[in-house]
Amino acid sequence: MKVKNLNGTSQRTCKCGSWLKHWENFGGCIATICSVVGCENSAEVGGHVQKVGNDNKWYIIPLCKSCNNKKGQELEIYEDTILVSANVSETCGKGIGKCELDRLFNFK
Prior knowledge:
Layout: E1 2-5, H1 19-27, E2 45-51, E3 59-63, H2 65-68, E4 74-76, E5 84-85, H3 98-104
Antiparallel strand pairs: 1-2, 1-4, 2-3, 3-5
């Protein structure tokens, strides 16, 4: 699957504390490696991307810092990569959700 790495998203925030944590909370997995095919670096950040094509939605995927710095470039990611919505009104901005409960009770 191809995605485009988005520019100018570093100032965006969510209630999960980091975009990588946001991906883990709403993707249901622990981020381990970068989602880019052929990259074996550890996932360090939650990168903002869009699917290449007609989808204008913003998503979060686990990326290493090197791949995340490829702003505006198309990236080939693994087909089974979970794309988590970057729209906080659909996720952690809806009120008490998984990430808020985890923080309240120190689960993660």
